[in-house]
Amino acid sequence: MGREVRKVPANWEHPKNDFGKYVPLMSGNFSEILGKYKEEKAQWKKGFRTDYKGGWKEKSDDELEMSFAEWNGEEPQVEDYMPEWKDEEKTHIQMYEDTSEGTPISPIFENPEDLAHWLTDNKASAFGSMTATYEEWLSMINIGYAVGMVMDKNGLRSGVAGTL
Fold first, then answer.
1. Contact (CB, 8 A) for 124 and 135
2. How far is Cα 56 from Cα 49, in angstroms, rounded to an integer?
3. 35: CB partners within 8 A, 6+ apart
């Protein structure tokens, strides 16, 4: 991905490390992600792995010698994810870069239009040194996310520009 709108409480302050830099946090519901990880690990112990279509298939010969962590990574940790707020608490939005786990690139706003204006006025990065127009940001905000970049008949553009 590249840019992602995250719903947050009005008083949310993204955590920073000892050097004052934002700590990357992944999006998604941690409880669901952990549950899925544990289910896949249990199936792995039985000799199966996900087929990426929602089902299970037997592990291949080269996978039989692997640990689940080697195949799928270490168990997710709660401190690596955004907090799990109730829906009624998530009254505002904030733009995140999610090329890595995710850090904010904007302040918090009540509505898409104000966020799009801020991103445009402050020449926020849509990808690398590329910025975006108000219309492009607003389109991307309404979709919720954009890939980092697109290459099509119009050339190389940010994913934000590619949402129009």
1. no
2. 5
3. none
Residue-wise pLDDT for 49-83, tens only, equals 998 888 999 999 889 889 999 999 999 999 999 99
Q: How far, CA to CA in Å, does 52 sit from each of 31, 55, 74, 97?
A: 20, 7, 18, 26
Tell me the C-alpha distance between 101 and 108, whole Å.
19
pLDDT over 70 at 127, yes or no? yes
Q: pTM of the entire structure? A: 0.85
Give the Cα-Cα-Cα angle 45, 67, 73 (nearest 5 degrees): 110
Q: Is the pLDDT of residue 99 over 90?
A: no
The yes-or-no verdict on residue 152 having pLDDT over 90 is: no
